[in-house]
Design goal:
The protein is of the alpha+beta class. The protein has nine helices and 16 strands. The strands form two sheets. Strands 10-9-8-7-6-5-4-1-16 form a nine-stranded mixed sheet.
């Protein structure tokens, strides 16, 4: 299997983003229409919800919609209001010490992975891994606030936004964990997701979000793919969420752990997943250094990418993933 990663810098939405959209739109269009079109909310509803809950993003949304051609379907897709289901298996945690950082593994189907690291300056400087072309799987802003998402392990859907847009929103409009939590308490999500946060001052948190439910802050700033209870046993077994969370908790409570030792645990099972055949292999490991505003992206084939707001390098990587379910 082949994995493509592009690092792209564009302060304001323009030709580079438009090229990314044109390349990915046929695949996203098929996904957006994978249910009956009647299942998707109309343009008027979608824009009204975006304007109500995330008004600061509306000018960016309008510009992106224009670059995408201005069609009804494209506009509804980009609103990310009540999109189709999507699942991902992830492990993530925030740590404070001499350096404050957020670390995560992202597990997903490599054939459906967007593969773009974007450096933008829409409302704030933001670096992150893109999803749905303007949402984020994880990222950090110039104030040193980092955020990442993990699927919450429930098959229930409701009326709300796709979580990648909420990650983008908190990074574009807030600077601290407390400010980000206040936003996440207010904006509805369409599926269950866990969001882990870290900031430059050492603040950290994980919050459990689910449609139609009051958000719950977790005891520890870490998450795998369940919330307070196991809602979907088959998914939990497939992704090993309980085992992975136990490893994360052991790391959290071990004062001898260092960034290097933690990273090695993220490079190996059970936190690292080789189940590419069943669409839940680890595609990347990433560390956001919130105090230093630096990003370390670790890719297959032992490829390391270092990025910062002062020195962001545009690059392309073509990498090969193992075909086996587990390492030989």
């Amino acid at each position: 299997m082949t994995l493509h990663i592009d690092c792209v810098q564009e302060d304001s939405p323009g030709q580079k983003w438009q090229a990314l959209f044109n390349k990915a739109w046929p695949h996203y269009k098929a996904w957006f229409l994978s249910d009956l079109l009647a299942e998707r909310k109309g343009y008027t509803t979608s824009v009204k919800m975006l304007e109500y809950y995330m008004p600061e993003l509306l000018p960016v949304y309008e510009k992106l919609t224009e670059l995408a051609g201005g069609g009804d379907l494209e506009a509804r897709f980009l609103s990310m209001y009540c999109p189709p289901k999507y699942l991902a298996g992830c492990s993530q945690m925030a740590l404070a010490g001499e350096q404050n950082f957020l670390i995560r593994n992202y597990d997903y189907n490599p054939h459906l992975f967007e593969g773009n690291m974007l450096s933008t300056n829409w409302l704030k400087p933001v670096i992150g891994m893109s999803d749905c072309l303007w949402g984020l799987l994880d990222g950090m802003n110039g104030d040193g606030l980092a955020a990442s998402l993990a699927f919450g392990g429930s098959n229930i859907t409701g009326e709300g936004f796709g979580i990648p847009l909420l990650i983008r929103y908190v990074l574009e409009t807030t600077s601290t964990v407390g400010e980000a939590l206040a936003v996440l308490y207010k904006v509805p999500v369409h599926m269950a997701y866990n969001v882990t946060l870290a900031d430059a001052a050492g603040g950290s948190a994980t919050i459990y979000l689910a449609p139609g439910k009051t958000p719950v802050e977790a005891v520890l700033p870490l998450a795998s793919n369940h919330q307070e209870i196991i809602d979907w046993p088959q998914y939990a077994a497939l992704t090993g969420t309980l085992v992975r969370k136990n490893v994360l908790e052991n790391i959290h409570f071990n004062p001898a752990e260092t960034e290097a030792s933690i990273l090695q645990k993220f490079f190996h099972p059970p936190l690292f997943n080789y189940n590419y055949i069943k669409s839940f292999g680890t595609l990347y490991t990433i560390i956001y250094h919130t105090s230093g505003r630096q990003v370390k992206l670790y890719l297959p084939e032992k490829k390391t990418v270092l990025q910062s707001f002062e020195d962001f390098k545009e690059q392309h990587f073509k990498l090969h993933l193992p075909d086996a379910v587990s390492p030989s």
